[in-house]
Amino acid sequence: MRINQIRVKDIHNVVELIGEVCSIREPEHIIIGIKWECPACGTLLTTRPSIEDKKTYPPYRCPCGRKHNFRMISQEVTDIRKIKIKEFEGIIGISIPVSVWLSENLIDENIKRGDKIKFKGTIILSKREQNHYSLIANEILKLNPL
Q: What is the pLDDT of residues 108-142, one digit of tens each?
């Protein structure tokens, strides 16, 4: 699928996206899950921050009805790297770059600006950049120079 073919119906679906790398960020650590304990009943609750805003919040409410003072039990942390891809040079039409989030074993891939790459992953709607799409990648395939 080409970047300019992404539509709303593709959100939360797994797609293959082909593009040229236009920017790469250094790997960083993010929290992907936090376990909380309710002080009233001892129930364990898990929250998961958005991959984009990286903010963590305690649960809003426990099933027992308690609304605050939850105790943090543990955090799950992973490494991620954000890259941006665009349409290949020479393709007619306007293309807005798409953010691709690489995690776990994919961040160590040897990716450089200008590489032509096929990504497989889930399309999400970006919260930070309104009306922009992001891809959470779970597979990368470098393409031969075209």
A: 678 888 888 888 888 887 665 555 667 666 666 66
CA end-to-end distance (rounded Å), the chain: 16
3-state SS class at 52? coil
Please choose, from the candidates 116, 144, 145, the residue with its C-alpha nearest in 3D space to the C-alpha of residue 2. 116
- Look-up: residue for tokens 């039409």? 93
Q: For the domain bounded by 3-28+79-142, which CATH number is listed?
A: 2.40.50.140
* Contact in structure between 19 and 88 (CB atoms under 8 Å): yes
Q: Looking at residue 142, what DSSP letter applies?
A: E
81 touches 28 (CB < 8 A)? yes
Place of tokens 């955090």: 75
Dist. CA 9–CA 97, nearest whole Å: 19
16: closest CA among 103, 115, 109, 100?
100
Amino acid letter, 99: S
What residue segments make up the domains of the chain, in order of their start?
Answer: 3-28+79-142, 30-78
